[in-house]
Amino acid sequence: MGDTRHTKVLIIGSGPAGYTAGVYASRAMLAPILVQGIEPGGQLTTTTEVENWPGDAQVQGPDLMIRMQEHAKAMECEIIGDIITDLDLSKRPFTAKGDSGTTYTADAVILATGARAKWLGLPSEEKFKGFGVSACATCDGFFYRGQEIVVVGGGNTAVEEALFLTNFASKVTLIHRRDELRSEKILENRLMKNPKIEPLWFHQLEEVVGTESPLGVEGVRVKHVKTGKITEIPCKGVFIAIGHAPASELVKDTLETHMGGYVKVNPGSTETSVPGVFAAGDLTDHIYRQAVTSAGMGCMAALDAERFLAEQGDT
Ligand code: FAD
Ligand code: NAP
To answer: Max alpha carbon distance in the chain (Å)?
Structure first.
């Protein structure tokens, strides 16, 4: 049997929202516990240059997240490497079960579980996941030195991944279902100027094809969305970059959600449908989904939690 830890504020998640909540809740003398989850540092640990974090014209995503972690730690936020597998929000104190066997009880909870990569849902994508199909160029790009690669998607992530992969690949084909990108203009300009990248407009991935033994990718079959014409593109790596979905599994049956699983908060605050439970960052934001907005919401959540606890006489 694991031990039980009680805290005034339990922060679930270690992205910009979680660590910022950790800094603010610590400085409010709430002695928070922050549980990091499976991806310490969150989504920014899967990227390279970040150019829109105020104060840093350029910073590596993983470095920025280590700095945030150190900042929270310096304020005496207790940071624990665990994953919350179950969360009971039916009564206070709230109860969270950790994968480690530890049970956490908390007077207030800040949810900052962020978002996860979306997949296309093709059987062949599933089959070759980890064997040529990936959703993280930073993690897996190195394996494709001198090889041809395809990237699927048309947002910031897809364009950044395509650009990053040109460091390794001989050619990168960007497959997008429209002929217009939704990425920032500065990224689009870099993409269009890069001689190693060839955009393939109006196409969708139909199937990943490859060898059985050893399991490995040899190419993709893509379909023109207007004519239906199928084309085969040889490649060794397939990077799916079609966006992210909120990581709301823990609370999908207990908190109000909307827009496909984003936790609903009261306008202008981080209050969820359960008093004492606050949500911040990509978990609750289907519009902006940026590091700086997530950090801002982490700050709001800590301040909202502090006010809630004071009203309950719990501080
Ligand atoms: P996340 O960063 O998603 O972190 C979620 C955290 O929750 C993780 O630590 C995870 O381990 C934890 N967690 C999840 N489930 C559990 C659980 N059950 N128990 C415990 N912990 C859990 N934004 C920018 O502003 N600039 C950029 O340049 C930029 N580049 C990006 C590049 C890529 C490739 C991607 C994918 C995103 C990028 N973004 C960028 C978006 C930015 O990363 C996100 O907006 C931001 O990370 C969201 O922060 P968050 O704290 O809400 O959640
Ligand atoms: P996104 O902006 O939601 O873009 C997803 C892309 O994938 C879109 O182009 C979409 O096509 C395409 N797509 C979605 N589902 C598809 C499907 N089933 N088949 C084929 N294509 C599909 O996601 P994102 O690029 O991951 O960005 C997420 C958030 O993080 C955004 O807010 C973004 O600004 C932020 N971010 C910021 C930076 C940065 O600031 N440098 C970097 C990365 C991410 P359509 O265009 O046709 O819809």
So the answer is: 66
The residues, ordered by sequence, that sit 6+ positions from 120 with a Cβ below 8 Å of its Cβ are 152, 205, 240, 242
Using an 8 Å Cβ cutoff, are 174 and 199 in contact?
yes
Say if residue 225 is in the same domain as residue 252. no
Token pair of 86 as six digits: 């179950």
Question: Which CATH number do you get for residue 192?
Answer: 3.50.50.60
As a whole number of angstroms, the distance between CA 86 and CA 255 comes to: 14
Q: What angle do CA 270, 15, 10 make, to 5 degrees?
A: 55
- Which of 240, 256, 273 is the last residue in one of the domains? 240
Domain identity same for 146 and 98: no
Sign of the torsion angle spanned by Cα atoms 260, 208, 173, 139: positive
Q: Give the structural domain span for 18.
A: 4-116+244-312
Distance CA(245)–CA(218), nearest Å, equals 29
Sequence-distant (6+) residues with CB within 8 A of 213 are none
CB 154 within 8 A of CB 181: yes
Ligand 1 residue neighbourhood (C-beta within 6 Å) = 12-18, 35-40, 42-44, 46-47, 50, 52, 83-84, 112-115, 157, 160, 247, 250, 281-283, 289-292, 294
Q: How many angstroms separate the CA atoms of 283 and 152, rounded? A: 23
- What are the mean pLDDT values of the chain's consecutive 10-residue runs (315 residues total)? 92 98 98 98 90 94 97 98 98 97 98 95 95 89 95 96 96 98 97 98 98 96 98 97 95 94 97 98 93 97 98 84
Instruction: Specify the number of domains making up the chain.
Output: 2
**From CA 139, how far away is CA 50, in angstroms rounded?**
16
Ligand 2: atom nearest CA of 120 is 18
Query: Which three-class secondary structure state does DSSP give residue 162?
Result: helix
Model confidence, pTM: 0.87
